[in-house]
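Two proteins follow. First one:
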Amino acid sequence: MKIRLLLSLSLFAVGTQAFSQEALGAWTEINWPNGWYVRPVHISMLPDERLLIWNTNYSFGQPLPDTPFGTAVSPGTNYAYNVFTIGNAANSTTNLFCAGHTMLWDGRLFNAGGHLIENGYGDDRVNVFDYRLPNNQAWTTSSRRMTQLRWYPTTTALPNRRILVLTGIGGSKHTTADIPDLWMVGVPWLPGLADYHHALPPNASMDNYYPHMFIDPKDGNPFFAARGWADEGVWPNQKLDLVRLTWSTYSTFPNGTMNVHGFYPSSVMINAKNWAGIRESIIIKSGGAESSGEHEPATTNALFADLYQDPPIWQAAAGMNLGRLNHTIVALPTGDVIAFGGSLTFGTNGVPVPSEAKPRTAPELWKPFVSDRATRPWKFFNKPVPADHEIPRGYHSTATLLPDGRIAVGSGEPDDAPEGSGNEHTRDVQLFSPPYGGTDAWQSLRPTIGVDCPTVIRYGETFDVTVAPNGTSGRPVTKLMLISLGSTTHAFNENQQVVELDFQNLGNNMFRVTPPPAPKIATPTFYMLFAVDNTDLGPQGETRIIGIPSLSKMVQLKDYEPIYPSGGALTKGTAQENINWAQPYSLLLGDNQYLGQGINFGPGFTGSTAEFVVSGVAPITDPTKVRVHIESKTVGIADLTISLFNWITNAYEPVAGPLVSNQAEKVYETVVTNTPGKYVKADGSIKAKFAYVQRGPTFVWPLSARADVVEFGVR
């Protein structure tokens, strides 16, 4: 990999004035007109608060180079990204242009697919960026490849730490990649990066380009919020059952005409409390064009639905003031959303020439949690000034929330840049400061999260932290918000999760905070924690942002430390054919892979048995809790007992069961308290036994048990 010297630049910010007495936001330029020198077609916030940005380092129609360009942008003091350090973070194996990307549970960035040979050809490689390593060592390319070539795929982090990769197109005929991939990264005994399999059934009823995926907080299953193509029919909204790995239609649109259109809309989901104090998980979608035509106008339509409803009911919101496609909706720490950029049409070859494409340079605000949200109009904010700083932010533009509450807005096809000119993606980057609390002078009025804020928080386990109101305003803090680190491209943030936290004010600025209760609410990864007060200085009766956010604190929301089985053995029953019991652990992590074809019960009917054990090594040797997880089903009905090996008594000790197991695949999980040396040996060794006892007297052939996704966890 070619290594470039770090370049530190001290730059001046150019501010703007609001064009009315009402606070309407302010723009700051970054190194005008050169920006970050790399156009942020792809932008991801890292746990160390750097921004990893990339596009491609060749002009369309030109030969591919060996090293696609990437840059890590480090902020200056107090998140001053206009005073920054650039570091070369190029990937030497894969052109990551038009890849999908999201964050793994440990903070590494997962990238799927990319650009090979030509637009639409795609790539089948997986790359991971480890922010903890030097830039020239941070990229790793998996030795395993995806099922299909992918260009424009979506990657979704799942509650079980796996990554779901969906659609995109690829190959010389730009064929739809309709076979979903599941990835597990960093399994220690497997070669390369991942335990990967492609057993998921094909799904052709889904958007080819960056489908909009969310996690349903009711059950943790992925939800596809269909965009719909009005000229080709509307794709159904769908859910994937992560246990059975089957798709089903879920939450149909009331009618096709109310749907936002399919060509480059934007959407986001926020889990927060509404005006009545009731928790909702609102998806808001807006804009998009009716078809893929270059001159097809974008719609102003907006829809919203609450995923806590079953099924969610889609409702029409007030339309945006301007039709937009290729815009990006960004969730704010206050629970509001702003639509940035976009244009009325795609423009010839994607170039938003103002006279033709009519780029949208004024952001718009919408409030998802107010009582009149179905009719509440969208609110225009300021454009950049002077006029020549109104950069077209259309195709390939991005907008990303920063740790200080501002939004970095960049890229987009510049005015009159012909394809092949090398200037297809503008590098001029601007920071937008929303009028939090109804004022543009909000930064001096922030509340503060104390230095006692933990860096690691765990599901359902409360923590205490100092949260102080601003010394000048004295406004009380009314919200604590977790917002995941953005990973945005092509009008969609694939890593956006926003969750309002419950808390108790203990007095003296001490808050007792309750993290989300389970990964289905917020998947394990890194988040920005914001405190928001109730400042409201804006004109009453106007749509405005209520509340001023603190500087965020970076926290990692963790589940149990995962332990994947490194060995296993059949102890009772007989294995069916085609099972390699010498290495059963190679099948213990798949989804619907099972342990080969199954374990036959011993001879006889009622009371016949099937039993196997698995072992692993814990990353910590003195945990207080141990978790055992298995997905299982049986042909026939059986009782399942889960036991952990007690290293003190030198015997297996039942910890769950008997549990009823039948042909419906189920998740069985138990958590037990551990004392030193009991279930985890001093060297980290841990063992579990899964024993099935056949119920009778009905004879079922073959009598067998099947297991899947066996793993331990400790904390």
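Second one, unrelated to the first:
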Amino acid sequence: MSQRPTRRTRSGARHLALFLAHWAGGHTVSNEELFRRIIKQRAEAHQEALEEHRRLVLRAHKKATKLHRIAEEDGGLTPAAKAELKAATKEAERHTAALRALGEFEVPNLDPGQVRHRRRRIAAARCAVLAAPAAGITAATVAGAWWTGPTAAVLGVLTSWARGPQAFDLTARPVPADLIAETPMVLAVPGAAPAPVVAPVAAAAVGLPSVPPMPAPAPAPAAAGATAPVPAGAAPAAAGTAVEGGQDLVLALSKALGACRVIPRGTQVTLLAPPEVTAERWTAVVRLPDDTGATVDHVVAARKNLGGELGLDRARLHVEQVAGADDKTLRVSGFTTDPFAQPRLCTAEMLGGVDVWEQGIPVAFDAFGRLLYLRLRDVSILLGGSSRSGKGAVLRLIIAGCLLDPRVRLHLADGKHPGQHRWKGLTDSYIYDPDKRAKQLAKRLEALVAEMGERAGRLAAVGVESLAERPDLVGTEGLTLEVVVVDEVSAFTLDVKYGKRITKALIDLAARGLAFGIVLILATQLSTAGVLDRLVTSNVVWRWCMYATGADESNTILGKGMAGRGYSAHLLDPEQRGSGLLLAEGRISTVRSLWLDGADMMAVQDMVRALRAKPTTPTPAPVPVQAPVPAPAPAAVAAPEADWSVLDRWLEQAAPPVPGPAAVPAGAVQRLRALDVIRQAGPDGIKRAALADAVGVPATTVGGWLKEWTSQGVIEALGSPPHTRYAATDGRQ
């Protein structure tokens, strides 16, 4: 009986030793599992490298984009900012090259030695785990806990006896299915579909600025009955009908916005109303997806690239925010032809009976052909653009509309005369003389500033603060609309003598004038930002910018940062005079001014003359009187002749008796020569400066001589009247 427990204990100890050796040697892990672990580790390292390079690329591009926006807003960069932009660009290129080099992760062909090396690392770790208890028992025994060794031996014997003759299954553990699912590229699941191949890293996936595709050539103008250009994939509909659903159009817009990096790829816009497709255009009201950070401004900034994706050019793609909606709701329209290609006339009938306060003056039309009316109720205008961009056409319409309203008193200051000369004699005041215009405008503006106090008193007497509260008072005594039109402001504000006075008056009128019915219409050629003070431009309600040569000039009118948001007048067609960007009521629209000229212009002028003609009283018939007898003409009196003998005697007396250096006083020769020149000049006289040049002495010396000779009567002998100043001969020119 005693031998059976001993054999059982020995058998169990042998099985335990074999299992521990098998486990400690790392043989419980199969070669497939080791291969999977190596590949997974490398795939994770590859993914971490990709994410790190993506993060660095995005950071570099964000910095470069910020610097580019600053350059557009400010018209350039400082040297330090240029260096930062160059460094950010190089960093983006370096990390982009790294991303392309990393590319798609590929499963490597591992050497068997790498698998053995991984198994040895596992074995070393497990042996360390087994050695830890033995080292602990030894340390405890040495420390004085003598019972730890016998206790461990007893536990080992009991464990061996408990195991007995049952052997362990010394095999490799199979790879679990969940681990296989985590690494589908390494081991295929039996019966499963092939693992998807990871696509190479694209530039757009890491936020790189992709090169916009080449825009499709603009189609020829549509003939009668032709359909409007519809984005690729969108099914055209009959003219005047709405597309049911419009899913194809949604997909086309979403794909184009994703390609322009306005919204993430794979996301879609939401169609809020059935799209309209006519022979001239297609229109869709959509909403950008949430949680993307995209707004209408982002779409406007990417309009050029967006048009290329949709097969349109910038002029034929129109984007605007829907009135009353949030910043994600917009209306996108594509046109067959440029909606501003053809000018539109303003006829005399359109201006007949105009009401500048309620109805407004027709001044422009938008991309959909809708007329834009300018109401002078609490509105002042800043109009800018390069030379020959169409500012004069807008001013012509505003002036005509104001003159056709009898409640308006128009003051026109023409800084580039004869720009608005056709209105001379029709306005209440017309300032144009280059020598006097700055002084005259300063006085006119200062008079209007002083008049604001009187107008404030009249309004306070009826219990209101501004004319907008009592429209019925417009045009009454003391409350007429005073409209000041200044064409080319720089000719006045940059005047050396009166520029500061004009600027100060403009600041006062811009800040308080609208409440009292004093309206400013200012036009400039965008020369510099110093033409108008910021206190003037910040109080202007309407800002209208025609074609400008650069983003900085456009920002001068529309405001700082507008070019960075995609609103810049330098992107307009310079051949379309009158086209511009209008900032009104917090929204920016692309418009083109109407055109008033020719017969309509003459008709409007006749209407103004008839409206503003002052009544005249009939002239009474003249009373016949006897014609007076003409008096006999007086006898002609001969003009007195100059007595030249006086001068001859004076010259003889002034001549030295004995010629010689010692006998001639200092300067006597020059004095004699000066007298001779005066004598030759005769009664017309000679200027002091010319006399000084003739005798070769300073003008101050000649002045002293003339003063002396005047008192001695020599100048009078020349036929000139005596003069209290010594420069009597100067006034003879």
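SUMMARY FIELD: Residues 20 and 474 are 105 Å apart (CA to CA). The mean pLDDT is 77.
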